Amino acid sequence: MNENEAKKELVKQRYSELALNSDELKGKCCCGTNPATPSKKVYTIMSEDYTNLKGYEADADLGVGCGLPTQYAGIKEGDTVLDLGSGAGNDCFIARAEVGETGKIIGIDFSPQMIEKARKNAIKRGYTNIEFIEGDIENMPLPDSSVDIVVSNCVLNLLPQKDKIFSEIYRVLKKGGHFCISDVVLNGTFPKEFTDNASMYAGCIASAIQREDYLGEIEKANFVNIKIERTKTVLIPDEVLEEHLDKSTIEKYKAGNVGIYSITVTGVRQ
């Protein structure tokens, strides 16, 4: 197993565990949700509130996002929307409320446990126009030019081959179709001890790449009208750092003054 495969396997294992035991684990994941007990401290990247959005389903929200991509996606009734890294189906159910009965939602995730959880959530609600597919978003099991919109929420940063992902997004979009992705990017460099930490990698932090490099991969995939719709600064609380890192690594990380950001970016297929 090469380095890229090992990283993907780590993420797959981590999110499979989250699907199986979400209440216990999501408070530990760096891009998880707030602790079960009320607190003003934010332990997560994800501090967005989905609860007032049409289509929201609480048991599909594992709190592992870093934005609200559906809010900026321009979804219309009748659209076919693809969600990359669909998890338990949270963004899919929000998107379904926008496309209506005449549209279609497809969710792809490489964790069989997540797919099972999402399918159960859809069946429980009687949704017939949502399909959840187990697959690799670096090699999507979908035909060319088959979807109108691609969305994703705090997923692409976890996978090593960004060039393949954006090439695949371009391939599956119809001509004139577009994407809207919320993801984590950096300004600065983490110390090696930080990026080598499994929890920080699987937690959406150490896996992030430089902001300009991320946007560069989108440009190389031939997208046009690339626009950052929203930027939010991400702060990692000391409690989270101390849980996963030793004192020396924390000091190196803080000395580096690395900027961590959640961005929501859109782009159009020519």
Provide an overview of this structure.
It is built from 10 helices and 8 strands. It is of the alpha/beta class and 270 residues long. Strands 1, 2, 3, 4, 5, 6, 7 and 8 form an 8-stranded mixed beta sheet that branches. Strand 1 (80-84), helix 3 (90-99) and strand 2 (104-109) form a beta-alpha-beta unit. Helix 1 packs parallel to helix 4. Residues 23-45 have low confidence and may be disordered.
Oligomer: single chain
Give the rounded overall mean pLDDT. 85
Give the overall silhouette. globular
Radius of gyration: 18 Å
Low-confidence stretches: 23-45
Beta-strand level of the residues, as a percent range?
15-25%
Q: Find the count of extended strands (DSSP E, 2+ residues).
A: 8
State the separation between the terminal residues, measured CA to CA.
36 Å
Structural class: alpha/beta
Q: What is the count of DSSP helices, taking H or I runs of 4+ residues?
A: 10
**Helix proportion:** 25-40%
Q: Please give the largest β-sheet.
A: 8 strands, mixed
The H/E string reads: HHEHEHEEHEHHEHEHHE
